[in-house]
Amino acid sequence: MTWSFLLTSLIVVASPGTGVLYTLAVALKQGSRASVAAAFGCTLGIVPHMTAAMLGLAAVLHTSALAFAALKWCGVGYLLYMAWQALREQGALAVDARPTGGRSSRRVIVTGFLINILNPKLSIFFLAFLPQFIAADESAPVGRMLELSGVFMAMTFAVFVVYGLFAGSVRDRVISRPRVMTWLRRSFAAGFATLGARLAFAER
User: Which residue in 87, 61, 86 sits closest to 74, CA to CA?
Assistant: First the structure.
Protein backbone atom coordinates (compact mmCIF):
# COMPACT_ATOMS: atom_id res chain seq x y z
CA MET A 1 0.00 0.00 0.00
CA THR A 2 1.80 3.12 -1.20
CA TRP A 3 1.38 6.68 0.02
CA SER A 4 0.65 7.78 -3.54
CA PHE A 5 -2.36 5.43 -3.67
CA LEU A 6 -3.65 6.57 -0.27
CA LEU A 7 -3.21 10.26 -1.08
CA THR A 8 -4.77 9.96 -4.54
CA SER A 9 -7.68 7.97 -3.13
CA LEU A 10 -8.26 10.54 -0.39
CA ILE A 11 -8.38 13.36 -2.94
CA VAL A 12 -10.82 11.42 -5.12
CA VAL A 13 -13.06 10.45 -2.19
CA ALA A 14 -13.09 13.86 -0.51
CA SER A 15 -13.80 15.77 -3.73
CA PRO A 16 -17.42 17.03 -3.83
CA GLY A 17 -19.57 14.72 -5.92
CA THR A 18 -22.91 12.98 -5.95
CA GLY A 19 -22.18 10.79 -2.92
CA VAL A 20 -20.90 13.69 -0.82
CA LEU A 21 -23.85 15.86 -1.78
CA TYR A 22 -26.33 13.11 -0.94
CA THR A 23 -24.68 12.38 2.44
CA LEU A 24 -24.75 16.08 3.37
CA ALA A 25 -28.38 16.41 2.31
CA VAL A 26 -29.43 13.40 4.36
CA ALA A 27 -27.45 14.60 7.40
CA LEU A 28 -29.10 18.02 7.36
CA LYS A 29 -32.57 16.67 6.76
CA GLN A 30 -32.59 13.51 8.90
CA GLY A 31 -29.63 13.69 11.26
CA SER A 32 -26.27 12.06 11.91
CA ARG A 33 -27.55 8.47 12.15
CA ALA A 34 -29.16 8.73 8.72
CA SER A 35 -25.95 10.20 7.28
CA VAL A 36 -24.06 7.04 8.32
CA ALA A 37 -26.67 5.00 6.44
CA ALA A 38 -26.19 7.29 3.42
CA ALA A 39 -22.41 6.85 3.57
CA PHE A 40 -22.88 3.07 3.77
CA GLY A 41 -25.24 3.06 0.78
CA CYS A 42 -22.87 5.15 -1.33
CA THR A 43 -19.99 2.86 -0.39
CA LEU A 44 -22.01 -0.22 -1.36
CA GLY A 45 -22.69 1.45 -4.71
CA ILE A 46 -18.97 1.25 -5.44
CA VAL A 47 -18.89 -2.56 -5.25
CA PRO A 48 -20.52 -3.25 -8.66
CA HIS A 49 -18.15 -0.80 -10.37
CA MET A 50 -15.07 -2.36 -8.81
CA THR A 51 -16.37 -5.81 -9.69
CA ALA A 52 -16.96 -4.66 -13.25
CA ALA A 53 -13.42 -3.30 -13.43
CA MET A 54 -11.94 -6.57 -12.17
CA LEU A 55 -14.04 -8.69 -14.54
CA GLY A 56 -13.38 -6.46 -17.53
CA LEU A 57 -17.01 -5.39 -17.84
CA ALA A 58 -15.97 -1.77 -17.53
CA ALA A 59 -14.16 -2.18 -20.85
CA VAL A 60 -17.53 -2.97 -22.42
CA LEU A 61 -18.90 0.36 -21.19
CA HIS A 62 -15.81 2.04 -22.57
CA THR A 63 -16.17 0.50 -26.02
CA SER A 64 -19.95 0.14 -26.35
CA ALA A 65 -21.72 3.43 -26.95
CA LEU A 66 -25.12 1.83 -26.43
CA ALA A 67 -24.27 0.23 -23.05
CA PHE A 68 -22.63 3.41 -21.81
CA ALA A 69 -25.52 5.61 -22.94
CA ALA A 70 -28.16 3.31 -21.41
CA LEU A 71 -26.56 3.37 -17.97
CA LYS A 72 -25.70 7.04 -18.25
CA TRP A 73 -29.26 8.15 -19.02
CA CYS A 74 -30.61 6.02 -16.19
CA GLY A 75 -28.21 7.88 -13.92
CA VAL A 76 -29.20 11.26 -15.32
CA GLY A 77 -32.87 10.46 -14.81
CA TYR A 78 -32.29 9.36 -11.22
CA LEU A 79 -30.29 12.48 -10.36
CA LEU A 80 -33.06 14.68 -11.75
CA TYR A 81 -35.53 12.65 -9.70
CA MET A 82 -33.37 13.35 -6.63
CA ALA A 83 -33.43 17.06 -7.47
CA TRP A 84 -37.23 16.94 -7.63
CA GLN A 85 -37.38 15.10 -4.30
CA ALA A 86 -35.11 17.70 -2.70
CA LEU A 87 -37.49 20.46 -3.79
CA ARG A 88 -40.54 18.53 -2.65
CA GLU A 89 -38.93 17.14 0.54
CA GLN A 90 -39.94 13.60 -0.27
CA GLY A 91 -38.38 10.16 0.02
CA ALA A 92 -34.94 9.84 1.58
CA LEU A 93 -34.49 13.63 1.54
CA ALA A 94 -37.56 14.48 3.63
CA VAL A 95 -36.97 16.40 6.86
CA ASP A 96 -37.66 14.20 9.87
CA ALA A 97 -37.37 15.55 13.39
CA ARG A 98 -37.66 12.04 14.86
CA PRO A 99 -34.83 9.48 15.07
CA THR A 100 -34.36 7.55 11.84
CA GLY A 101 -36.05 4.13 11.98
CA GLY A 102 -35.00 0.90 10.32
CA ARG A 103 -37.32 1.32 7.36
CA SER A 104 -36.15 4.88 6.74
CA SER A 105 -32.50 3.79 7.04
CA ARG A 106 -33.05 1.11 4.40
CA ARG A 107 -34.51 3.72 2.05
CA VAL A 108 -31.51 5.99 2.61
CA ILE A 109 -29.09 3.10 1.95
CA VAL A 110 -30.89 2.00 -1.22
CA THR A 111 -30.96 5.56 -2.55
CA GLY A 112 -27.23 6.02 -1.92
CA PHE A 113 -26.53 2.68 -3.61
CA LEU A 114 -28.56 3.62 -6.70
CA ILE A 115 -26.92 7.04 -6.97
CA ASN A 116 -23.48 5.46 -7.34
CA ILE A 117 -24.36 2.33 -9.29
CA LEU A 118 -26.06 4.35 -12.06
CA ASN A 119 -22.90 6.33 -12.86
CA PRO A 120 -20.99 4.52 -15.65
CA LYS A 121 -18.01 6.84 -15.25
CA LEU A 122 -17.18 5.10 -11.97
CA SER A 123 -16.59 1.75 -13.69
CA ILE A 124 -14.31 3.35 -16.25
CA PHE A 125 -12.56 5.31 -13.49
CA PHE A 126 -11.71 2.13 -11.56
CA LEU A 127 -10.64 0.37 -14.75
CA ALA A 128 -8.06 3.12 -15.30
CA PHE A 129 -7.29 3.93 -11.65
CA LEU A 130 -6.57 0.69 -9.80
CA PRO A 131 -4.20 -0.96 -12.33
CA GLN A 132 -1.80 1.99 -11.96
CA PHE A 133 -0.96 0.80 -8.45
CA ILE A 134 -0.43 -2.86 -9.34
CA ALA A 135 3.10 -3.89 -10.31
CA ALA A 136 3.56 -5.54 -13.68
CA ASP A 137 5.22 -8.54 -12.00
CA GLU A 138 2.53 -8.89 -9.30
CA SER A 139 2.03 -12.61 -8.63
CA ALA A 140 -1.62 -12.23 -7.57
CA PRO A 141 -3.06 -9.18 -9.37
CA VAL A 142 -6.69 -10.01 -8.54
CA GLY A 143 -5.90 -10.30 -4.85
CA ARG A 144 -3.97 -7.03 -5.00
CA MET A 145 -6.89 -5.31 -6.73
CA LEU A 146 -9.27 -6.61 -4.06
CA GLU A 147 -6.95 -5.24 -1.38
CA LEU A 148 -6.79 -1.81 -3.01
CA SER A 149 -10.55 -1.82 -3.57
CA GLY A 150 -11.19 -2.63 0.08
CA VAL A 151 -8.98 0.23 1.24
CA PHE A 152 -10.66 2.62 -1.20
CA MET A 153 -14.12 1.59 0.05
CA ALA A 154 -13.09 1.94 3.71
CA MET A 155 -11.73 5.39 3.00
CA THR A 156 -14.91 6.34 1.15
CA PHE A 157 -17.09 5.27 4.07
CA ALA A 158 -14.90 7.04 6.65
CA VAL A 159 -14.72 10.33 4.75
CA PHE A 160 -18.44 10.34 3.98
CA VAL A 161 -19.24 9.65 7.65
CA VAL A 162 -17.08 12.62 8.66
CA TYR A 163 -18.96 14.83 6.18
CA GLY A 164 -22.27 13.53 7.48
CA LEU A 165 -21.46 13.89 11.18
CA PHE A 166 -20.26 17.44 10.65
CA ALA A 167 -23.44 18.37 8.81
CA GLY A 168 -25.53 16.54 11.41
CA SER A 169 -23.89 18.52 14.22
CA VAL A 170 -25.31 21.79 12.85
CA ARG A 171 -28.67 20.30 11.83
CA ASP A 172 -30.66 21.63 14.80
CA ARG A 173 -29.60 25.19 14.04
CA VAL A 174 -30.56 24.73 10.39
CA ILE A 175 -34.01 23.12 10.58
CA SER A 176 -35.22 25.75 13.06
CA ARG A 177 -34.84 28.41 10.36
CA PRO A 178 -37.39 28.04 7.53
CA ARG A 179 -35.54 30.43 5.23
CA VAL A 180 -32.31 28.49 5.59
CA MET A 181 -34.16 25.22 4.91
CA THR A 182 -35.71 26.68 1.77
CA TRP A 183 -32.28 27.82 0.59
CA LEU A 184 -30.81 24.41 1.34
CA ARG A 185 -33.58 22.57 -0.53
CA ARG A 186 -33.02 24.70 -3.59
CA SER A 187 -29.23 24.35 -3.30
CA PHE A 188 -29.36 20.56 -3.06
CA ALA A 189 -31.87 20.38 -5.91
CA ALA A 190 -29.59 22.57 -8.04
CA GLY A 191 -26.60 20.42 -7.06
CA PHE A 192 -28.27 17.17 -8.11
CA ALA A 193 -29.53 18.76 -11.33
CA THR A 194 -26.04 20.09 -12.12
CA LEU A 195 -24.45 16.69 -11.52
CA GLY A 196 -27.13 15.15 -13.74
CA ALA A 197 -26.31 17.64 -16.48
CA ARG A 198 -22.59 16.89 -16.18
CA LEU A 199 -23.29 13.19 -16.47
CA ALA A 200 -25.52 13.82 -19.49
CA PHE A 201 -22.62 15.44 -21.34
CA ALA A 202 -20.07 12.84 -20.18
CA GLU A 203 -18.26 10.92 -22.89
CA ARG A 204 -16.80 7.43 -22.74
Answer: 61
The rounded percent of the chain whose pLDDT value lies above 70 is 83
Cα(7)–Cα(134) distance, integer angstroms? 16
Residue whose C-alpha is closest to residue 156's, from 67, 38, 33: 38
User: Which residues, 6 or more positions from 51, have their beta carbon under 8 angstroms from its beta carbon?
Assistant: 57
How far apart CA 110 and CA 127 sit, in angstroms, is: 24
**Residue range 87-128, pLDDT digits in tens:** 776 555 555 555 555 557 888 999 999 988 887 777 777 777
Q: Compute the half-sphere exposure of residue 169: CA atoms within 13 Å on the CB side of its CA.
A: 6
- Cα–Cα–Cα angle for 89, 92, 95, rounded to 5 degrees: 45
The pTM of the full predicted model, rounded to 2 decimals, is: 0.77
Residue type, 52: A
